[in-house]
Write a structure and sequence with these properties.
Layout: E1 2-6, H1 15-25, E2 29-32, H2 65-74, E3 80-83, E4 86-87, H3 93-106, E5 111-116, H4 121-127, H5 134-150, E6 154-157, E7 162-166, E8 178-181, H6 185-194, E9 197-199, H7 208-221, E10 230-233, H8 241-249, E11 254-257, H9 261-264, H10 270-289
Parallel strand pairs: 1-2, 1-11, 2-3, 3-5, 4-5, 5-8, 8-9, 9-10, 10-11
Antiparallel strand pairs: 6-7
Pfam families: Bac_luciferase (PF00296)
GO molecular function, one term: oxidoreductase activity, acting on paired donors, with incorporation or reduction of molecular oxygen
Protein name: Putative oxidoreductase
């Protein structure tokens, strides 16, 4: 099993040394997070808490996802990078294609677009982007992105995007993998039929086998069972080696070391974060390396 480290909500000046340390410890990759803006008052319900209230607040740091990944990629050689989760339908598809294609090219294909629909309607309202059509728009955006990543002249005529032959150069040497988030039935189907992987938002170990079976079923129905598919799942229970081994045998490909906020609070020193990462690597990464 592979393991990823979340690096969201941390002090910006710690991102580069933590990426370097993650590579040194053997983490597969690191994931940052995304919100374009964070309004003072949020009316939308947060889907991942029992009371519908998000734990985040406007002063929690969300540095630009692409800039921070570029900076971390520049000082590492093996480490992979993903967003968890980039609010894709909020953005301009051409700007996303150019930024992500460039990231893939300059990082030697170590970048993965981790994308989702977004939950905060307030953010869409501020941007002037329709919220209720975001699912269908995301589906079409993925199609458009893959066309643009191919290079050369491409055109598209769809419900949300309609453009004549055009080109974004330089193109990446490989298409950018797309990992999708979301826990609803349509979200799981989207990941299985359009994505190269799925990023969970927190699941119990008991939920994982059914998720793996559902992805297998959906991918077989879509004729995609032969293609690689990653499952990056953060468990909502304390990390346990036997649990990781059991879930790995059942098809889960990667575990997640949670944001430092949960173990150290919103603000902590670089040394404290390194200590947490080192403990995680010793307890979970090393046993899989030595198996």
């Amino acid at each position: 099993m592979k393991f990823w480290q979340m690096v969201n909500w941390i002090e910006v000046d710690q991102l580069i040394p933590l990426a370097q340390f993650a590579e040194e410890l053997g983490f597969e990759g690191v994931m940052n997070s995304d919100h374009a803006v964070y309004p003072k008052t949020v009316l939308a319900e947060y889907p991942y808490s029992p009371d519908g209230k998000a734990m985040m607040s406007p002063d929690w740091p969300y540095p630009d996802a692409w800039v921070t990944i570029a900076a971390m990629a520049a000082v590492t050689k093996r480490l992979k990078f993903s967003t968890s989760i980039y609010v894709l339908p909020l953005r301009n598809v051409f700007e996303v294609a150019k930024a992500t294609g460039t990231l893939a090219l300059m990082s030697d294909n170590r970048f993965i677009l981790g994308a989702g629909l977004g939950w905060m309607k307030d953010e869409f309202d501020i941007y002037g982007v329709e919220f209720k059509t975001r699912a269908r728009r995301t589906d079409e955006m993925i199609d458009v992105l893959r066309k643009l990543w191919e290079g050369g002249m491409v055109e598209h005529h769809g419900d949300f995007y309609d453009f004549p032959p055009l080109q974004i150069a330089p193109e990446p040497t490989q298409t950018v993998p797309v990992f999708l988030g979301g826990s609803s039935a349509p979200a799981l189907k989207r990941a299985a039929t359009r994505g190269d992987g799925w990023i969970g938002a927190g699941n119990t170990p008991e939920e994982v086998p059914a998720l793996m079976a559902e992805f297998t079923r959906l991918r077989e129905e879509a004729g995609r069972a032969h293609l690689p598919f990653e499952t990056l799942i953060g468990l909502s229970t304390p990390p346990d080696l036997d649990t990781f081994k059991r879930l790995h045998d059942q098809g889960m490909t990667a575990g997640i070391s949670y944001p430092f906020f949960f173990s150290l609070g919103l603000h902590s020193s670089l040394d404290d974060k390194k200590r947490v990462m080192e403990q995680f690597a010793k307890a979970f990464i090393r046993p899989f390396e030595n198996a």
